[in-house]
Design goal:
Blueprint (H helix, E strand, L loop, with lengths): L4 E9 L3 E3 L5 E3 L5 E3 L3 E3 L5 E6 L4 E5 L3 E3 L2 H7 L10 H13 L63 E2 L3 E4 L6 E3 L6 E2 L4 E5 L5 E5 L5 E5 L5 E10 L6 E10 L8 E4 L2 E4 L3 E8 L7 E8 L14 E6 L5 E7 L10 E11 L2 E4 L1 E7 L5 E4 L2 E4 L3 E8 L7 E8 L14 E6 L5 E7 L10 E11 L2 E2 L3 E7 L18 E6 L3 E3 L7 E5 L7 E8 L13 E4 L5 E4 L13 E12 L5 E3 L5 E7 L14 E7 L19 E9 L5 E2 L6 E8 L7 E3 L3 E3 L3 E6 L11 E5 L7 E2 L1
Parallel strand pairs: 10-17, 18-25, 19-26, 27-34, 28-35, 36-43, 37-44
Antiparallel strand pairs: 1-4, 1-6, 2-3, 2-5, 5-8, 6-7, 9-12, 11-15, 13-16, 14-15, 16-17, 18-20, 20-23, 21-22, 21-24, 24-26, 27-29, 29-32, 30-31, 30-33, 33-35, 36-38, 38-41, 39-40, 39-42, 42-44, 45-46, 46-47, 46-51, 48-50, 48-52, 49-51, 52-53
Length: 716
């Protein structure tokens, strides 16, 4: 059988190898097993002592190689008459073989047949064979020495089969293995076998079955590394060593990348997104950014849009984008918008989208009730939302063993996610309990809530009590008391005379605040914030109080605008520590009417304001004759619109108001002058540049007048 052990190595003199059917060599050591079909190679006069499977000694000596098969063993093993050697004679012969001196025939005694070991009187060549050690091959044969026992001295000779290993070079990338065919450039007659390699300082090398070697650099190494390999001839008689140089080039620097993070904020807060570079750059890096609607929108006033360009100075690795989110009085689910990066210079974009999640400042709460059922019934638990919202709200649920267990067959496990649609405040989940024939005490299992989105969890655990089928169920527990709703209202003065401070506005709560309450106010009406009054955006009710007051200053102007209104509405509430707090639907706004100033000894509001175009210099100073202006070609003439009361006094309260003027030709043509504009501001200088032409047209005229409502025009 090809893979069966046929002999065991007892001793080795010199070097000896075993070569398998694939040509692979292994050096033999005492105790090694020789398998059928392997060839024993004994270069340079080596010898091997073997013990066959049955214990019979067998020696391979003075033979370059011998293939061990059962036929060879049977043919060359000692016969019965050849084995009749005393133990001490065998030991003497083996000793003579190992020492390599003397004549082994002198140590042999007579054979079992009685023949002398020296072959009789004539000397000759008779001997008792310890083992047949000659393998006949096509390349050589063994002859017994029939001549006189005088031996010739051994002569050193070069091996007939040689190998010349040649140095090699290879290149590989950092961290990557490379297969090197080191034998490709070697010089040999009948092939070579790579039998050994040395390990390099900065990597590892292994020999492959096909005679190539694989080099793997150590992690992080780059540069030149070296190792050697030894090539041996197939007969093992010759070998040579060569050096392999492997170049691992320095890796190119990692490209710089840009990324942006995600953030979560409560509505009304400023979202700060950090834009980061993967490493410092020695050159400026720029990237553009811009917001983009998702579930949060600009049109819905959820956030203020932002666009721009970030610039990273050399060495800088992070920058911050700020986007303002807006608080409102609407109960809504969690929303989000995006901040996108684009058009980077000096780097590439790795993560180009940041997500801003906006949490409602006054989120509703979710709770779950407890139920009691008789075994076999379906337990129906209600998930409740404290108030309806405009956006979806979701929460996950899952059953959990208590005294009732799934493995005990008491109920069927359930997990899932429930979603409250906009406006929905209650959802039911069902869990099946199982009836059995066992009489047992009351048991229970749990239903837990987790991972709410768009709300917070007020009661996260429902208890399902299972009563044995032989016991009547107890009455259901009373529903938990519902918290009383809390409201905020506003009251204030019905009228105010312009120029005065209003009476006090009062913002009140139905109960005392546990924590400070921030009240956001919005202003509408026919009066204009900034020109008729000065608004106050927020007021705070301190903790321990239930109300606060504020006033508004109004602005006296020159306009007869009696009856303008200020409408103040509560648009947002936060804080207070209440279960819920919302504007009182019946008293969430107040209206104040502004009356014109008619009090004596104060500047009266004129009933009529007249607008007039006058001629001025470049600084806006009126000319001596404000009704006319003149100039030579290539000069510029200046004008201004002013407001006058009934007594002709200049009113400055309308300065900055836009009005339209017209330039009308009398004898001039359009190409004779160029107006600076036809929509101008009261109190602001505008002009007409006179054009030089080739015509003798002295005295041409045009007029400047208000487009509507002019009291006069003038000629120049």
């Amino acid at each position: 059988m090809a893979d069966q052990a046929i002999a065991t190595v007892v001793a080795v003199q010199g070097k000896a190898y075993a070569r398998d059917e694939n040509g692979q060599l292994r050096e033999l050591q005492p105790g090694d097993v020789i398998r059928e079909g392997e060839t024993v190679v004994t270069p340079e006069g080596g010898s091997v002592e073997l013990a066959l499977a049955d214990g019979t000694p067998f020696a391979v000596v003075d033979v370059p190689e011998m293939t061990l098969t059962r036929d060879i063993i049977a043919e060359r093993a000692a016969g019965a008459d050849e084995s009749a050697v005393e133990d001490e004679t065998v030991e003497a012969v083996l000793a003579a073989l190992e020492e390599g001196e003397g004549d082994i025939l002198e140590d042999l005694e007579a054979t079992a047949a009685g023949a002398g070991g020296d072959g009789g009187e004539g000397g000759g060549h008779s001997f008792v064979r310890l083992a047949r050690i000659v393998e006949e091959t096509d390349d050589f044969h063994i002859q017994a020495n029939l001549a006189a026992p005088e031996a010739a001295a051994p002569v050193d000779q070069d091996p007939l089969i040689t190998v010349d290993a040649i140095d090699d070079e290879a290149t590989t990338e950092p961290g990557e293995s490379v297969v090197i065919p080191v034998q490709t450039n070697d010089v040999f007659i009948e092939g070579s076998i790579v039998t050994a390699v040395t390990q390099p300082e900065n990597g590892t090398v292994v020999i492959n079955p096909d005679g190539t070697v694989t080099y793997t650099p150590n992690e992080g190494f780059f540069g030149e590394d070296t190792f050697t390999y030894t090539a041996t001839t197939p007969d093992g008689n010759a070998e040579d060593t060569a050096t392999v140089r492997v170049t691992v080039p320095e890796p190119a620097p990692e490209p710089i990348t840009i990324s942006i993070d995600d953030v979560t904020v409560v509505e009304g807060e400023t979202a700060e997104l950090t834009v980061s570079l993967s490493g410092p750059s020695d050159q400026p890096v720029t990237v553009q950014f811009g917001t983009l609607d998702d579930t949060a929108t600009v049109s819905g006033a959820d956030y203020d849009p932002e666009t721009g360009t970030l610039t990273f100075a050399p060495g800088q690795t992070s920058a911050v984008i700020q986007v303002q989110t807006n608080e409102d009085a609407i109960l809504e689910g969690t929303e989000q918008f995006l901040v996108n990066l684009s058009n980077a210079t000096g780097a590439t974009i790795a993560d180009g989208q940041g997500v801003v999640t906006i949490i409602d400042g006054s989120l509703p709460t979710i709770s779950i009730n407890d139920v009691t059922v008789t075994e076999g019934q379906t337990a129906e638990l209600t998930l409740s939302l404290s108030e309806a919202v405009d956006g979806p709200v979701s929460v996950q649920f899952g059953t959990l063993d208590d005294t009732a267990t799934v493995i005990g067959g008491d109920y069927d496990p359930e997990t899932g996610t429930v979603t409250f649609a906009p406006g929905q405040t209650a959802i039911t989940i069902q869990i099946q309990t199982n009836e059995d024939a066992i009489e047992e005490a009351t048991e229970q299992f749990l239903v837990n809530l987790s991972n709410a989105n768009g709300a917070t969890i007020a009661d996260n655990q429902g208890v399902v009590t299972i009563i044995d089928g032989t016991e009547p169920p107890p009455p259901p527990p009373p529903p938990p008391p519902q918290p009383e709703p809390q409201f905020a209202s506003i009251t204030g003065p019905a009228t105010v005379v312009e120029g005065n401070v209003t009476g006090e506005y009062t913002v009140s709560l139905t109960d005392t605040a546990n924590t400070p309450v921030t009240v956001t106010l919005t202003y509408t009406g026919t009066a204009t914030d900034g020109s008729d009054y000065t608004s106050q955006a927020q007021v705070v009710i301190p903790a321990g109080q239930s109300s606060t007051t504020f006033t508004l200053p109004t602005i006296d102007d020159y306009i007869a605008d009696n009856g303008e209104t200020i409408v103040i509405t509560i648009s947002g509430l936060s804080g207070g520590g209440f279960d819920s707090l919302s504007p009182d639907p019946a008293n969430n706004s107040v209206t104040t009417t502004i009356l014109d100033d008619t009090v004596p000894n104060t500047e009266p509001d004129p009933d009529v304001v007249t607008l007039q175009v006058i001629a001025v210099d470049a600084q806006g100073n009126p000319l001596a004759d404000t009704s006319a202006n003149s100039g030579a070609e290539e000069e510029t003439l200046y004008y201004k619109v002013i407001a006058l009361d009934e007594e002709g006094n200049v009113l400055t309260g309308l300065d900055g108001t836009n009005v339209d003027v017209v330039f009308e030709n009398i004898t001039a043509q359009d190409e004779d002058y160029t107006p600076s504009g036809t929509t101008v501001q009261i109190g602001t200088v505008f002009s007409a540049a006179l054009v030089d032409d080739a015509f003798a047209d002295n005295g041409e005229q045009y007029t400047v007048a208000l487009a509507t409502g002019a009291d006069q025009s003038f000629t120049q």
